[in-house]
Automatic annotation (TrEMBL):
Organism annotation: Emticicia aquatica
Protein's recorded name: N-acetyl-alpha-D-glucosaminyl L-malate synthase
Keywords on record: Glycosyltransferase, Transferase
EC number: 2.4.1.-
Domain Glycosyl transferase family intervals: 185-341
Gene name of the record: bshA
Pfam families, alphabetized: Glyco_transf_4, Glycos_transf_1
Domain of life: Bacteria
Keyword Glycosyltransferase tagged: yes
Length: 375
């Protein structure tokens, strides 16, 4: 198949899933055409089946807001027409599903029917999409897609509840490449971060409010009074500054390190003992899955799709959003030397269920269903 993939090319979850999916499809022999405004973060190598088409926006002094949606639709038309794509797969409803609708209508005038698959990732439904200015557009764009998928059953439920959706939504969970995300021998790295054999807690995210980084810092402040430990915060975003201040206010000193964005996140995860994800909302929790693949158990909130990934008392624990004390209690339990190896093994076993080789075929079958007009 010739597949067009449209996504945000950044480190964010939806962009990572879209890029890894494209790589998986290319490995299976499909020709994959990425259409984005810059080279996707995890697409930094040559592959004969992968093509990249950059969206360029015409600039003109009249434009206070550059017309990205129109430029994207124009690029989609160009790529579908000249590369003879079979299907367009857009990740994140806004504005990708809307631009895809426009492109589809334009292509219809040229006698081309391009099926559009939209994958909803989370904040496009649970936060941004609900905004009154966007909700009618999101509803329309989802209903006009030929196929719609969500990354968890919970997100499908949220989508049906928040919008008037007439389409059947298919759940295809997120996935992890176990060849890349696996525990590596990085003891030297661990010795640098934890010179006195402390336990290492890790969090990775885009540092937005929805991630509740303040809970992570509060959990750590309480935990470290009972278990010698260190906290590594990976990523960057609007909450980083205030959170650095909070850790100073709590006198956490050098026990907390903000390391910014990292490409080789699996190296850090390889030396971690516990991953923290106390999010307000999380449609799936891809970062937690990547941690589990590196044998790291997870302390998370019980919101959104997290219960579909993290198994209570097996791969970690889930608590109500904001219940810092419960999370501390559970973290102490996991970190006991007699419990930690079992949780680590269970985390890996669970991650294996979400191996990319199990999930990419689900997308392939779904494209075929859409092409047959059965979605
Ligand atoms: O976590 C974010 O805010 C980024 C966002 C995105 O769309 O880029 O992530 C969402 O999609 C990920 C990939 O499907 C999911 O694993 C995340 O759970 C989801 N984030 C939220 O629902 C907050």
């Amino acid at each position: 198949m010739k597949i067009g993939i449209v996504c945000y090319p950044t480190f964010g979850g939806s962009g990572v899933v879209a890029t890894e999916l494209g790589k998986g499809l290319a490995k299976n022999g499909h020709q994959v055409h990425f259409i984005t405004y810059t080279q996707p973060a995890r697409l930094d190598f040559f592959n004969e089946n992968i093509f990249y088409h950059e969206v360029n926006i015409a600039s003109y002094p009249l434009f206070q807001y550059p017309p990205y949606e129109s430029a994207l639709a124009g690029k989609m038309v160009d790529v579908v027409k000249y590369e003879k794509l079979d299907v367009l797969h857009v990740h994140y409803a806004i504005p990708h599903a809307t631009s895809a609708f426009l492109a589809k209508q334009i292509l219809k005038c040229h006698g081309i029917n391009i099926p559009v698959v939209t994958t909803l990732h989370g904040t496009d439904i649970t936060i941004v999409g609900k905004d009154a200015s966007l909700a009618p557009v999101v509803t329309f764009s989802i209903n006009e897609s030929d196929g719609v998928t969500t990354v968890s059953a919970d997100l499908r439920k949220d989508t049906y509840e928040a919008f008037d959706i007439k389409k059947e939504i298919e759940v295809i969970p997120n996935f992890v490449d176990l060849e890349r995300f696996k525990k590596q021998r990085k003891e030297h790295f661990k010795r640098i971060i934890c010179p006195n054999d402390e336990k290492l807690l890790v969090h990775t995210s885009n540092f937005r409010r929805v991630k509740r980084i303040e809970d992570i810092i509060q959990i750590f402040a309480k935990l470290k009074k009972q278990i010698p430990s260190k906290l590594l915060l990976v990523g960057d975003g609007p909450e980083r500054g205030p959170m650095e201040q909070l850790s100073r206010d709590l006198n956490l000193g050098e026990d907390v390190r903000f390391v910014g964005k990292l490409d080789a996140i699996e190296e850090v995860l390889s030396v971690a003992d516990l991953f923290l994800m106390p999010s307000e909302k999380e449609s799936f929790g891809l970062a937690a899955l990547e941690a589990m693949a590196c044998e790291v158990p997870v302390i998370s909130s019980n919101t959104g799709g997290l219960p579909e990934l993290n198994v209570q008392g097996v791969t970690g624990f889930l608590s109500n959003v904001g219940d810092v004390d419960d999370m501390v209690k559970n973290a102490i339990y996991i970190l006991q030397d007699e419990n930690l190896p079992t949780f680590k093994a269970n985390a890996l076993a669970r991650a294996r269920e979400f191996d990319i080789t199990n999930i990419v075929p689900m997308y392939e079958r779904y494209y075929e269903k859409v092409l047959r007009g059965e979605s």
